[in-house]
Amino acid sequence: MKRTLTALALAALSSTGLHAHSADTAELLQQEMANRNVFKAWFPNRQLARRAAISLHGQLLESRLDEGYQVFELDPIDQSRLRAFGFRLEVAEDFIRDRNSRLLRMQKEALAAGPEARSIPSYTCYETVEETFTQAQALVAAKPQLATWLDAGNSWQKNQGSGGYDLQVLKLTNSAVAAPPGQSKPKLFINSAIHAREYATAPLVLEFARQLLNGHGVDADATWVLDHHEVHLMLHANPDGRKRAETGLSWRKNTNNAHCANTNTRGVDLNRNFSQSWNSTGGEGSSGSACSLTYRGPSAGSEPETQAIEAYVRSLWPDRRGPNPGDAAPADTSGIHLDIHSFSQLVLWPWGATNAPAPNGAALATLGRRFAWFNGYTPMQSIGLYPTDGTSDAVSYGELGVAAYTFELGTAFFESCANFTNSIKPGNLPALMYAAKVVRTPYLTPGGPEVTGLSWVNGGVVAPGGSAKLLASATDLRFNQSQGAEATQAIAGAEAYINTPPWLPGATPIALQAADGQFDSPTEALTGTLSSRGLPSGKHLVYVRARDASGSWGPFSAQFLEVSAAPAPLRIGAQCSALQCSFKATGGLSGALSSYSWRLGDGRSASGQQIGHLYAQAGTYLVELTQRSGAGTQTASRQVTVQNSGTVTEAEPNNSLASAQALSFNPVRVNGLMDVSGDQDWFTLQHEPGKTLSVLMQPNASSDYDLYVYDANGVELARSENGSGAADSVSLVNSGAFSARRYVRVLYYSGGTGAANGRYTLDIGQ
Q: How confident is the model at residue 113 (pLDDT cuts 50, 70, 90)?
């Protein structure tokens, strides 16, 4: 009798040596690989599919909306519930096969990486729990005036003395800027990864922290947000569970082994355990079964993770909502709570326990549709096919009246790094920044227009007493109108403030004009002239906002204006190692719109304030730099001398990726030889994080050889295929957090071969 696919997979799992590495993990993986309660659910329509994604989010494993189905892990009760809504179910054989293959691959990679791995196996863009905390602490160490690392409580395992973690919060604000007397700074609180398997959530929020901290003093919006607001980030709300999920397990809950003990469905669903609405829907919105993925726990707020979040939230905001379900929070209530989940591409707001709108429902919808404009997700109240209860907004909105939202990122729990980089970050980082901007009055400000495209005609640099012309656009149209509709109005006015925003004493508005002479459209070009009279030399923050015909002022956008008597001289900083040089422009004209053009002395050119360059041969070169901005043009030059790099000789056999010749010098020159027609030579090296890898291949004068660079999976990253006798060159940046394996391939195309006519040189540096 043939062995089943699952049996073969389990045998392969044992052969990896994983039992010696972690017997408990191996047992849990075998449980998951043997689980066949996984179904394709063919939905009647997309509206029901979205609602199923909310109600059965704990069971949802994959969404293929364009193909007409979703994948769920379903017990018999949930199967009956879906069939009652017209869903057709079938066992998801292909998903089960792919899941088991992924689990095996991740375990092998984990064993190869060892216990010091900084990223999740197969997902190099996602930091482990430990690396997340290390990165956060590094931000605090680098920016102590702006960042604080706070202990908000313990995980379940930490309480049990069986490992576990502190529940840490990264608090961001400029401690040198105080709130007005008698007031506190508005607060944005974001928690992520409360469901362990939702890989993209914590890395997104960590990236938001980097954006704010690295932008302070450089980006005007990041600067004023940190000066005048507070941002609190609980990156891992369920760190015990996340460690389980880092093995590839589809782990959702915490790891409380008192419930469904010693299985991979043990623990409590923390997002059904919050106090205010716990078990409030008669069993519809959560499960009382300990092995269920939506098990609500034995009592309201029973879990230490839930208790820590509730206590932290209550420490941030006062209670501004009455005790009755219909009591609305006052319109000027400050604060926003975002709970970042994946997946389903949704922006959700209360209530989830009832179809009735929340008492602040209209304002919640307005801000939700603003968020969804940025990320393109579906904005809707968080009620699905049936209710949910005990969720994270229970304390923030349900108890305190603070605006609360859930973001459901992307299309998979184990979101690919490509989707994370190309879709999730570009769509959601602006949404998080919008939240940080409107957190002072989230029930009011999102009703007003947004200012975009803020810039200066003169590059934002003026002499003392001079004037700067400002350009911008104001629009009231940036709503996602896919579910319901928000009213839009014509822009009715706009104003700017220099240094002092209107919530501080002494603020002076400067009226801006419609570029066409009349405010009468929902999108208007803005213009205005701002005087620097009375401003000291240095950098100044200019705040700009717009008002629509309903009287609603929208959020501020900001730019820096620099008052400078005379620009510093432009200089070229240079650092060379062998043939590899890095150049940086310093001093010169101020202004965000500056451009930098380089002539590198060897016939090649580049652009950017900081560049890297690999010279083909030793020598002395004249490097010339030109800076241009709205304030004028400056030039600088200097000579650099470069010497030959470490040299190696190409060694056969190296005619495949598997037999690639390892290179250790940096930079390095390879003296290569094409032995025969059709020959190819492969080389391999580590590409360090943040570095630009430059490769230059010079064939002999009569030959055409081509140049390629690949990643560790053999995926082509760059190529150069110039003609006979011409050099080929490529460069690429490692934008990841860790070093990456690269493979360089030189391929014979035509021309000479052998010791006399087949020679080429390969220069590599980073």
A: confident
Question: Distance between CA 181 and CA 179 in Å, rounded?
Answer: 6
Query: Which stretch of DSSP H or E encloses residue 341?
Result: strand 336-342
Task: Select from 252, 102, 62, 241 the least CA-distant residue to 110.
Answer: 102
Tell me which residue of 164, 173, 168 sits closest to 146, measured CA to CA.
173
Please report, as a single letter, which amino acid is at residue 52: A
Strands 123-127 and 523-531: unpaired
CB 551 within 8 A of CB 476: no
Structural contact between residues 188 and 230, judged by C-beta atoms closer than 8 angstroms: yes
What are all long-range contacts of 24-31, with beta carbons under 8 Å and residues at least 24 apart? 25/244, 25/247, 25/249, 28/244, 28/247, 28/249, 28/263, 28/264, 29/103, 29/107, 29/247, 29/248, 29/249, 29/264, 31/263, 31/264
As a whole number of angstroms, the distance between CA 591 and CA 627 comes to: 11
DSSP letter for each residue of 103-125? HHHHHHHHHHH-TT--EETTEEE
| Sheet order of strands, 716-720 included | 661-662, 680-687, 740-750, 704-710, 716-720
Side chain identity at residue 334, one-letter code:
S
Burial annotation 224-245 (CB, 10 A radius, 16+ → b, else e) = bbbbbbbbbbbbbbbbbbbbbb
390: left (phi over 0), alpha (psi -120 to 50) or beta: left
* Burial grade of 48 (CB within 10 A; 0-12, 13-18, 19 or more): middle
End-to-end CA distance of the chain: 56
Q: Is 267 exposed, middle or buried (0-12, 13-18, 19+ CB in 10 A)?
A: buried
Do residues 329 and 362 make contact, with C-beta atoms less than 8 angstroms apart?
no
Q: Tens digit of pLDDT for each residue in 228-252?
A: 999 999 999 999 999 999 989 999 9
673-695 residue pLDDT tens: 998 988 999 999 999 888 889 89
- Residue 178 parent element (H or E): none
Helices (H), 629-762: 754-757
Q: In sequence order, what are the beta bridge partners of 341? A: 408
- Answer whether 707's CB lies under 8 Å from 672's CB: no
pTM score of the predicted model: 0.73
Contact between residue 242 and residue 254 where contact means Cβ atoms under 8 Å apart: no
* The pLDDT of residue 71 is above 80: yes
Q: Are 25 and 247 in contact (CB under 8 A)?
A: yes
| Nearest partner of 375 among 416, 417, 434, judged by Cα | 434
Among residues 185, 209, 511, which one has the least CA distance to residue 334? Answer: 185
pLDDT at 55 over 90: no
Can you tell me the distance from the alpha carbon of 27 to that of 425, in angstroms, rounded to the nearest whole number? Answer: 35
Task: Report the candidate in 714, 718, 713 with the shortest Cα–Cα distance to residue 733.
Answer: 718
Rounded distance, CA 405 to CA 413, Å? 19
CB 488 within 8 A of CB 504: no
Q: Are 355 and 55 in contact (CB under 8 A)?
A: no
For residues 193 and 370, what is the distance between their CA atoms, to the nearest angstrom?
23
Nearest-angstrom CA–CA distance, 197 and 243: 9
Q: Is the pLDDT of residue 23 over 60?
A: no
The residue among 524, 515, 513 whose CA lies nearest residue 491 is 524
Q: Are the C-beta atoms of 213 and 423 separated by less than 8 Å?
A: no
**Quick one: tokens of 208?**
């938001």
